[in-house]
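no rush on this but wanted to send it before i forget. what follows is a protein written twice so to speak, once as letters and once as structure tokens for the fold. mainly i need to know what kind of three dimensional shape the backbone takes. thanks a lot i owe you, the record is right below.
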Amino acid sequence: MKKQFIGAAAALGVLASLVVAAPAAHAEPVCDGFAVVGSDTIQDVMTGIANGYKVSDSISVRAIGNGKFACNFNAVDSVYAAAGASSLIQTKAFGTPFLRPNGSGNGQTALSRSIDGADINPNAAVVKIQGQVDIARSSSSPSGSADPTESNLAETLAAYPFARDALSFATNASGLTTLTKQELNSLFKCENLQNPSAPAGPDNLPTINGVAYTPVLPQEGSGTREYFLEKVLGVNKNTTDLTKGVKYNGCTLIGQEHQTNQLFNAQPMPANAVVVHSVAQWIAQANGVGIDRRGAGFTLGSAITGKVPTDTVAGKLVPNASYYADDVFGRDTYLITQASRTYTGSPTFDNALSALLGVSKTPGYVTADIPATSLLNQSTDPDTVGGVKQAFGFGATTVRNALNPTYHPLKSGTLAGTW
């Protein structure tokens, strides 16, 4: 299904050639702080942290840096997702509207084009967004590595560990509670087909123990998709077998990341679907702190034999620490920004952005020193940003040191996906 473009403001005259018939516009407020885009996985917890999360009648938590806040833009606008459509966002006052970055990879692309000023639009009309994005949310570490020097910091991305998540699958298949890594490989590579002599397709699905299932992979541009392909399936995320927005190897459908109430093209989920899913997102949706995108009859399964991804405490789901610690199915998530803006010796150092993240070059400064209202806070206390992460199903503590970023080149190209 071809995606539609949806206007967000009267300023879309510069993009008139992109717009087709669509539902009425639905704009988000522009940002006078730091604009954050990208990953679906951490969008809800970032909304809570950015807008303010009420812990109790007397305690609220909101991230702040030198008087400035984060402005979080979701990967998908639910109004348009229900219509199978894409939307435009305008992040800063007087800025150019551009396609909403859907997923980690697209968030990194938007940040990169905000830094270098190159065209971000995947279609004919040129769209430039220099200075419009400050932080990219990411559920996987960016590709490539960079060796930053003072001369190239402005053209380098710094990925700071944000919170710990885990991967599993959601399913509407009766009685399916566990799939091993090997079984997930078999399903998503369309093996053990109902009819081994015929091509894979909706009428010839992969089977486990004689039962046919439909695998559902996240949309292109998703960090969860990239992580699952590489870490679980051992497939290069850039493989040409991945047909944009349609199918992988003939049997796998495309869904919107961590959403089991419909497919990416707004069609219904099939029976016996197996959907790649964040455990933290499932917890947040089930506990009512995140937007509930769960489809009828779906449950969360385990991808590790003998371990469940969640426990229940006082009637609420919580992460199973041993599952989150797994080398394959456990993963850190990241906040990515322009490296020079968090380096005190740089001409473009941004004191407020560094304070919002909680980054400091003070000698002896460690993760325990990150302020309670900074985005990288790793505390487990409920009245801190780290505590809010826990409320949304994340491990507040990352495996990598939150103050030790990895460095990467700017992500090239325009926004990816079916629009």
Notes: The chain has two domains: 5-163+333-409, 165-330. The first strand starts at residue 5 and ends at 6. Residues 1-26, 240-247 have pLDDT under 50 and may be disordered. The two ends are 9 Å apart (CA to CA).
